[in-house]
User: Fold these one by one.
Assistant:
Number 1:
Amino acid sequence: MFIEVVKSKIHRVTVTEANLDYIGSITIDEDLMDAANIIANEKVSIVDNNNGERFETYVIKGERGSGVICLNGAAARKVQKGDIVIIMSYALMEFEEAKNFKPAVIFPDTRTNMLVKLKK
């Protein structure tokens, strides 16, 4: 039996742009994509903490180190610049494998969308 589990999560980032005139997708800073184990064209679910919207789209690479989180096309109508969103992707796996799977979850700084380095 296969089940769907959270594979990756970018927890609480700030929308930097909403571009209605671009083809549909979400542009994500490539540093955030790498840290969260998300690749270009991957399907993601997005939750807007400000208005409760939940929707799906696919990822395109944004400029590395830019902090960009831009909703494009129709998705731009679901958010506003400055909204806080959570971005999640999922994977199908065998039930037993899923019991031990650890998703990549990151917590960027919501002011800059940059990764926070934790002190040891």
Note: The two ends are 40 Å apart (CA to CA).
Number 2:
Amino acid sequence: MRLPQLALLALTVCPLLTGPAQAAPCGGDFQSFLSAMAAEAQAQGLPDSAIHAFLDNAQLDPKVIKADHGQGFFRKTFLDFSQALISKSRIQNAAIYSKKYNAAFTAAEKKFGVSRGIILAFWAFETDFGQVQGTFDTRNALVTLAHDCRRPDIFQPQVLAAIALTAKGDFAPGQTIGAWAGEIGMVQMLPRDILERGEDGDGDGKITLKTSAADAILSAAHMLQFYGWRAGEPWIQEVTVPQNLDWSKSSIDTELPSADWAAMGVTAKQGNLANLPASLLLPQGRKGPAFLVYPNYKVLFEWNKSFVYVTTAAYFASRIQGAGPYDAGNPDPALSPEQMTTLQKKLAKMGHDVGKIDGVLGALTRSAVQVEQQRLGLPADGWPTADLLAQL
């Protein structure tokens, strides 16, 4: 394992990875942008050979911007999203890969405390266990997103990390391909995460996330541990809730001891409630599936910011480790994207912070919905309905 070398490079690169490159203006002339990125890389002591190898032939990729603006699947409900992603074949393949790479999963759990179920779930969703790793030129994807003004603070440091990986011989500019957002390999990690938390799981002296399942498994575990994963603890558990519950408590922001939930009549569908702080999650309101989520669940938002993605991955991981199929219930119909946009505009006009008005039911919109449901005397479960929209 090359941990000493990784640690040294992390020390070299980390100062600049805390924010955007200081001299690289976004959105302007592309060649000027590349020159500014080169100057920033030089200021951080990265070798000229790697800087030129990475930046000299870099190009903007309009397909990357199109993909970034077109993430429509995040508008799906939890039921639609989870039923689309969790197939019988994926459940079967998870069992196959769990057995095939048992040694790597065992090592990941021993070293980093991360359960194999969550790694298998992300591995399945990100690349179908390495089968679909993306077709975008990673260098061009990174510089395109770093040049774009939406999130330069995220992607400019990733460009610099990729230059550091180039210097190590672990990135081939113009040859490395991956996802549109610059992620690489079986579990789709960004260059900075590879640089700082990549693991040589197969002992060959290299970190090769595109072809080595063991490297990918150990690296994913290291990343989750870094973001706060707590060894030996669950992350999500399906529950049954009484119909007279105070629905205003059903929020990811409301955390209570599991004993308090039990006192309110919340019971586990399988086994017992964990003796941990927990939040009651109703992805589609009180008439749909119900889960208690524990501290490890929130760690998963460091992997992906989407509520439906994280909740689906968490649930799938629990299925892989023995949980049964959820009870879908009979939730009220979801608002259309147009209705959701109208709802967000109304809530914003009333003074609520709903974040970006984009037709996506995010955490801020859910919180605002709950406040208005309480004000109107409706069940405050955070699930927006046509009736709520009409009353507003």
Note: The longest helix spans residues 152-168.
